[in-house]
Design a protein that fits this description.
Elements (H helix, E strand, L loop, with lengths): L3 H18 L3 E7 L16 E7 L5 E7 L6 H12 L12 H12 L3 H9 L3 H7 L11 E9 L2 E8 L5 H13 L5 E4 L3 E9 L4 H10 L1 H9 L3 H5 L3 E10 L7 E9 L6 H19 L2 E7 L7 E8 L1 H4 L6 H17 L1 H21 L4 H12 L9 E5 L5 E8 L8 H4 L1 H10 L4 H24 L4 H15 L7 H11 L4 H14 L10 H5 L1
Antiparallel strand pairs: 1-3, 2-3, 4-5, 6-11, 7-9, 7-10, 8-9, 11-13, 12-13
Helix pairs in contact: 6-17, 12-13, 12-17, 13-14, 13-17, 18-19, 19-20
């Protein structure tokens, strides 16, 4: 191991050498017991990271962060933390909620006030400012999914969901995918579409031509409405028109306003654009404007994820990994061919995506609408995922779907817990959040079909369902584990069974707490 003096000499030497190559350099020197070197740093714009490793097995990592401007010490430490953190946390489920919260607070660098939000959440007065006729606040669990590696960076994923087994399952699937290198994700620019419905148009073809000729004028009108979005690189991109020759009320001309909304979900911006242009479109077409509203089929705002799972990682007692991979492919083929199966298949994907959307204050209803419409875009409803096996038996997956989410405005900034969720994720752009969500959706889908193609989905799910039944029966927290174990052994997962078991335990003073954690959860 190098001495402190040697490290300092290296520090000075490296700084001098690199300053000659590029101005505005910041670097951070840190000793690490182990190191994964990244050839690039894909998490912040215009930043490159080079890792130089000295000494083995005692590795000394000198990380050079090159940026167009100098970063202060806090920013440098923040960048280093992103590189050094791991979401692989064995035994995370064994910790108490308070211990988990403390771990996540250290991970995200939460202040004491922010940590308190995890306990207090939304006040009635704040809720009253969000919607109408408020009488109280409805609380849901905020959980953390672990093991996610996305584009080389580790994430802890905040998820809000009441359904048992989802968090354990998605964390376990993320661990399997992690063993194949993690998720590779991407996305399109954040383009939303607003629609203007024009009726009673005397000549549809002529109207289309007039609107096309006036496109640049129309775009300039829209962009003058939101100069800030345009300064950030967004704004109206195109105006297109579609003819619906036959509807129940006659022919229609539908005008689309294609609008890059940057880091907003964008509903307000595009709806305002549609309202603004409606009179001009009436004049150009000679028709009458009726609806002026965004579409939630945001097929120009897509995200996608790819992953590979080694067949050895898929193996489980009694089933070889390559065999289970083939069964997963067969299960996916079922969902591609049959809309009845596809509905449940895609619901599993949305179990993961919706939970992140709710945690971050995004509109999960809009995401659901867009996902299911996209699944039927060719006229037949089908699975959103594709799974296939490689020549060596590994499993490869691909998921693509619309994901219109934002990191500014709306509940994302108003809801205190949503703000904490965004701090935990620490993303720079709305597209980053979309790519996290698509990875979570893929992990949840893998977890579901792996269980279905293996021993069935009920084994782990019913154990967690038994916890709910025990709680509903009034069993004290310290005795829930013992009651659950008895219900599982008896095969009777009902409130009445839990109540009877607890009464018997009280009578016999047998209230010892035993483990009630399923094998799937232990593996997560």
């Amino acid at each position: 191991m190098r001495s402190g003096g040697e490290r300092r000499r290296l520090e000075v030497q490296l700084l001098q050498e690199v300053e000659l190559l590029k101005g505005g350099l910041i670097f951070y020197l840190r000793a690490q017991p182990a190191l994964i070197c990244f050839p690039f740093f894909p998490f912040e714009p215009d930043i490159t990271v080079i890792s130089v490793v000295f000494d083995s097995p005692n590795l000394l990592c000198c990380t050079l962060i090159l940026a167009p401007v100098r970063m202060n010490e806090q920013a440098c430490l923040s960048v280093w933390r992103k590189m050094a953190q791991t979401s692989r946390i064995p035994g995370f489920y064994k910790r108490s909620p308070a211990e988990r919260a403390q771990f996540v607070a250290q991970w995200a660098g939460l202040t004491e006030e922010e940590q308190a939000v995890l306990q207090q959440s939304l006040s009635v007065s704040a809720a009253d400012n969000m919607t109408e006729n408020v009488i109280g606040v409805y609380a849901l669990p905020l959980s953390i999914a672990t093991n996610f590696t996305i584009n080389g960076r580790d994430y802890l994923i905040p998820m809000t969901i009441e359904e048992p087994s989802v968090i354990a399952a998605v964390s376990f699937a993320a661990r399997l995918i992690r063993e194949g290198g993690g998720f590779t994700t991407g996305s399109t620019p954040p383009v939303m579409v607003a629609q203007v419905q024009l009726l009673d148009v005397p000549d549809l073809d002529v109207a289309v031509q007039r609107i096309k000729q006036a496109e640049q004028t129309l775009l300039a009108t829209v962009n003058a409405l939101h100069p800030t979005i345009q300064r950030l690189g967004g704004g109206a991109r195109a105006i297109t028109a579609r003819i619906l020759p036959q509807t129940e009320t006659g022919p229609m001309l539908i005008v689309h306003i294609h609008y890059d909304v940057r880091d907003a979900m964008g509903a307000n911006a595009v709806n305002s654009a549609a309202e603004l242009l409606a009179p001009q479109l009436e004049a150009l077409s000679g028709g009458r404007a009726n609806l002026r509203i965004l579409t939630n089929l945001t097929d120009e705002r897509l995200a996608w994820a790819r992953c590979r799972v080694p067949s050895a990682s898929l193996a489980r007692p009694g089933i070889e990994g390559s065999l289970l991979a083939r069964r997963i492919v067969e299960a996916n083929a079922f969902a591609l061919a049959d809309p009845y199966r596809a509905a449940t298949h895609n619901k599993g994907i949305m179990n993961g995506i919706d939970a992140v959307a709710i945690a971050t204050g995004n509109d999960w209803r809009a995401l659901e609408a867009g996902a299911h419409a996209y699944a039927a875009r060719d006229g037949r409803y089908r699975a959103l995922t594709q799974w296939q096996t490689t020549t060596n038996g590994d499993l490869e997956g691909y998921l693509e779907m619309p994901l219109a989410v934002g990191i500014i405005g709306g509940a994302t900034k108003v809801h205190p817990t949503a703000r904490i969720a965004m701090r935990i994720l620490d993303v720079a752009h709305a597209t980053d959040l979309a790519e996290i969500m698509i990875a979570v959706g893929m992990a949840q889908n893998l977890a579901a079909i792996r269980a279905l193609a293996g021993e069935g989905i009920q084994k782990g799910h019913m154990r967690l369902h038994a916890r709910q039944m025990a709680t509903a029966a009034g069993v004290p927290e310290e005795a829930v584990g013992a009651v659950v174990a008895r219900m599982i052994a008896d095969g009777l997962i009902r409130v009445e069974s839990a109540r009877a078991i607890w009464q018997t335990m009280q009578q016999t003073n047998a209230g010892a707490n035993t483990s009630d954690t399923s094998p799937e959860i232990k593996e997560a």
